[in-house]
Amino acid sequence: MAFNELYQYSLISALMDGVASHGTPIARVLEHGDLGLGTFRCMDGEMIVVDGEAYQIKADGSAVHVDPETTVTPFAAVTRFRATATRKAAVSGMAGLEELLNSIFPKSRNHFLAVRMDGAFKKINSRSVAGQLKPREGMVDVCSRQTIKTFEAVKGTIAGFRCPAYAMGLNVVGDHFHFITEDRQRGGHILLASGFETDGDVEIEAAQLSKFYLELPTEDDEFDSATLKLQAQGIKKVME
Amino acid sequence: MAFNELYQYSLISALMDGVASHGTPIARVLEHGDLGLGTFRCMDGEMIVVDGEAYQIKADGSAVHVDPETTVTPFAAVTRFRATATRKAAVSGMAGLEELLNSIFPKSRNHFLAVRMDGAFKKINSRSVAGQLKPREGMVDVCSRQTIKTFEAVKGTIAGFRCPAYAMGLNVVGDHFHFITEDRQRGGHILLASGFETDGDVEIEAAQLSKFYLELPTEDDEFDSATLKLQAQGIKKVME
């Protein structure tokens, strides 16, 4: 794929329905992009992709580099990222980031954005999950057992996407970011409500994505039999 | 693109919002597929793509071959079609086709289908539209002035897609087919309620599509400023 196109495997609605037993090798996902996020089989942890490397963030907040050949993901979104806008700025929380992104991309509300932030953070509130207790357990239930970690005075990288309103059900509408420390040892899914606060200026890179390439699971009975009803409230809930 | 991937330019929600002043050259659409449907600038007519050729069906039901280099579409969906299933069967109406497709593709409700039918039809109820009266006029208003044509004892080709429920807003959920006569001189959008009836067996070709490639308009102020709210009821209405 070209730069700044969004590749996605499966649907957030499928995770909501608990479709997570199978997936695609992460090596195949990385063919389509070098920055992004996702999860793992049975929703066992948060995935972040940075510089073409995929990391698994476990329920205790620890991160491990994964072997892309032998590890499978039931949901992932990545882009071959090339920033079209860079800023050095202090940002407080998701609201602050939203404001900054709107000022950089005033005409992009109906497009996707990819965002990467590198630098020092005063505080980051993030969560991870330990996975399904049984096949087909839905994401709301999995996330009801999430563990929250607060990182303070930490350097690292935030990566993720802003998706337009009409993408609800395909992906998460609005901001969705994962975090990993500079040493790539800890991280998580950034909680929208409490978010993060930078320690002075950080490096913010972003790009508008206007091509969306969705690959659906095939030969996957869980996916084929799922109802995939739109669960907008549920999706919002698991992002908080 | 490979065979049996769905390429789409813009969103049905954008048409609902009246985003139809600009678009992409049809030549660019045809690079991605040889079978499909769409519309034209200002929603001036129904588009059908058959065997890599695009036709414009005007409000009076007449069809003209369009020059893909000089003609622009604000919304189109095509696939490089290679049937994975073929049947010779008599089909009565959209319900009959739905039943047949479900029997051929029992596990495809969460995937897209491309369908082509060739043969003799006892009757086809179709419509076309004369386009917007002003920029940003929405599709519900455009279609409120649709003209309906009933073709009887006619040979021709039906082409279109079945989209899964979660695609509502991106495209039309369920069946969406356009028709053109064998001599490529007349046609229209097949009305879901009254539909069509074959005259004995026709040739039905279909394929499951599990990759969806969405290209959003860029440098298009109409698209960028549209609200693109989900208008599920409106979309159903304009398909009837």
UniProtKB/TrEMBL annotation, chains A, B:
Catalytic reactions of this protein: (2S)-2-acetolactate + H(+) = (R)-acetoin + CO2
Top EC group: lyase
Pathway participation: Polyol metabolism; (R,R)-butane-2,3-diol biosynthesis; (R,R)-butane-2,3-diol from pyruvate: step 2/3
Record GO biological process: acetoin biosynthetic process
The enzyme's E.C. designation: 4.1.1.5
Domain of life (superkingdom): Eukaryota
Record-linked CDD domains: acetolactate_decarboxylase
Pfam families named among the record's database cross-references: AAL_decarboxy
Assigned keywords, A-Z: Acetoin biosynthesis, Decarboxylase, Lyase
Gene Ontology MF annotations: acetolactate decarboxylase activity
Protein family (similarity comment): Belongs to the alpha-acetolactate decarboxylase family.
Name used for this protein in its record: Alpha-acetolactate decarboxylase
Species the sequence originates in: Parathielavia hyrcaniae
